[in-house]
TrEMBL record, chain A:
The organism's place on the tree of life at top rank: Eukaryota
The protein, known as: Unplaced genomic scaffold scaffold_69, whole genome shotgun sequence
TM stretches of this protein: 186-209, 221-240, 247-268
Signal peptide: 1-20
Matches recorded under InterPro entries: Ribophorin_II_C (IPR056790), Swp1 (IPR008814)
Gene Ontology CC terms, in alphabetical order: oligosaccharyltransferase complex
Keywords: Endoplasmic reticulum, Membrane, Signal, Transmembrane, Transmembrane helix
Automatic annotation (TrEMBL), chain B:
Source domain of life: Eukaryota
Organism, as annotated: Pisolithus microcarpus 441
Function: Subunit of the oligosaccharyl transferase (OST) complex that catalyzes the initial transfer of a defined glycan (Glc(3)Man(9)GlcNAc(2) in eukaryotes) from the lipid carrier dolichol-pyrophosphate to an asparagine residue within an Asn-X-Ser/Thr consensus motif in nascent polypeptide chains, the first step in protein N-glycosylation. N-glycosylation occurs cotranslationally and the complex associates with the Sec61 complex at the channel-forming translocon complex that mediates protein translocation across the endoplasmic reticulum (ER). All subunits are required for a maximal enzyme activity.
Membrane topology: Multi-pass membrane protein
Assigned keywords, A-Z: Endoplasmic reticulum, Membrane, Transmembrane, Transmembrane helix
Pathway info: Protein modification; protein glycosylation
Cross-referenced Pfam families: DAD
Principal place of residence: endoplasmic reticulum
Protein name: Dolichyl-diphosphooligosaccharide--protein glycosyltransferase subunit OST2
Subunit note: Component of the oligosaccharyltransferase (OST) complex.
Gene Ontology CC terms, in alphabetical order: oligosaccharyltransferase complex
Localization per record: Endoplasmic reticulum membrane
Length: 277, 123
């Protein structure tokens, strides 16, 4: 066990020593070529000072090569993460493009404007600030501001299929039917009189027939008649004021004596009809 | 045209004779109780006709009130006609099990239920 712990300790000490190192760029170089493979501009980058902004046409290609070394020495290293960052400082838009680095530290990035990568942010007529981000478990993380890059303005983004749904809808105007009007008062009065006139016919006919109700006030008949009248009064009250539950309750209560009174009254009528009494 | 005219007059007179005979027979042979019911049926019929005429000629507003009024006339007419059929002594053979008192009890119960629905519709 002791030798194994010692072995791990040595690795830890070594890692701490290596951690102190930093990464640097060697031979950073860019080349801009046109679609006909003609070199438009080529230069070596100075990390101390940004060069003149690079300009890419709609079909130009930018090639950017560099090597990553440790502490500026010749030996190349491969960081764990290498990114190129394109940043529009005005709009705040940015794009991150991973760069493949060989184990020897050499890297080559190519930006073809005929087929721009999706990571390129939306561009206007402003330059993008291009920087290189290096991340490593054993070195200090580093950022290099490389250059400013003019690329052709991007097209307006295609509208989302659901875009139309996210707008304020036009105000809904409800159209109501006009209020129905009552007929003129005269017409109402005439028809009210006409509707009531059958009562005169009824009373006239009954008086002509000669209605006789000799038992109406008989003690066996009058409760039934009164309770039927109470039922009609209850229904009239329902029309004016009562709720459905109340009228059903009161009707149920009223039904009990009405049934008994009706039984008595109709039994008495039956007796009178058959001449038993 | 002349023969048609001469044949039309006897038909009209025959109709009026038939109607007169029927009316006389009704007056003579129908009991007062049935006449009482018939008068009530006439009353209901006139009420319904006037309400319907108002609805057609003037306005159906408020429509629920018209429905309630007209339905009460129709419903009450049906109930009364049914009462008349059951209490008519000439129909005794058809309604052997139904006494006039039982028919009247049915009539009152039916009327109360009908009036409940009518008031419900009246609004």
């Amino acid at each position: 066990m002791v030798p194994r712990i010692t072995f791990h300790f040595i690795w830890l000490v070594l890692a701490t020593c290596v951690h102190a190192g930093s990464l640097s760029l060697q031979n950073p170089r860019f080349t801009i070529t046109s679609s006909t493979a003609a070199q438009l501009r080529t230069d070596t980058l100075s990390l101390a000072e940004k060069p003149e902004p690079l300009k890419l046409g709609p079909s130009d290609t930018l090639k950017f090569t560099f090597q990553i070394t440790e502490n500026g020495e010749g030996k190349g290293v491969q960081p764990h993460q290498t990114f190129l960052r394109f940043h529009d400082s005005v709009s705040g838009e940015e794009g991150i493009q991973p760069v493949r680095v060989t184990p020897g530290g050499k890297a080559k990035f190519e930006l073809n404007m005929a087929r721009p990568p999706p990571s390129l942010p939306p561009t206007a007529d402003r330059p993008l600030e291009v920087s290189l981000i290096l991340g490593s478990f054993v070195h200090e993380p580093t950022i290099f501001d490389l250059f400013d890059l003019y690329v052709p303005p991007s097209h307006a983004p295609a509208p989302h299929p659901d875009e139309a749904k996210f707008h304020v809808l036009p105000l809904i105007h409800h159209t109501f039917r006009p209020e129905q009007k009552l007929p003129p008062k005269f017409v109402s009065v005439v028809f009210a009189a006409l509707v009531l006139s059958p009562w005169l016919v009824l009373l006239g006919l009954w008086s002509k027939i000669g209605v006789r109700v000799p038992h109406l006030f008989s003690p066996r008949i009058i409760p039934f008649t009164a309770l039927l009248g109470a039922f009609e009064a209850l229904l009239c009250w329902y029309w004016i004021d009562l709720k459905l539950g109340e009228v059903l309750l009161y009707g149920g209560i009223l039904a009990v004596p009405t049934i008994f009174a009706g039984k008595t009254a109709l039994a008495a009528t039956g007796e009178w009809r058959t001449g038993k009494n | 045209m002349a023969p048609a005219k001469s044949s039309k007059t006897p038909v009209a007179s025959e109709t009026s004779v038939a109607l007169t005979t029927m009316w006389k027979s009704y007056i003579q042979h129908t009991s007062d109780r049935l006449k009482l019911i018939d008068a009530f049926l006439v009353f209901i019929m006139f009420s319904g006709i006037v309400q319907f005429a108002y609805c057609v000629l003037v306005t159906n507003f408020p429509f629920n009130a018209f429905l309630a009024g007209f339905a009460s006339c129709v419903g009450q007419f049906v109930l009364t006609a049914s009462l008349r059929a059951q209490v008519n002594p000439e129909n005794r053979s058809e309604f052997n099990d139904v006494s006039p008192e039982r028919a009247f009890a049915d009539f009152t119960l039916g009327s109360i239920v009908l009036h409940f629905f009518v008031y419900n519709f009246l609004g």
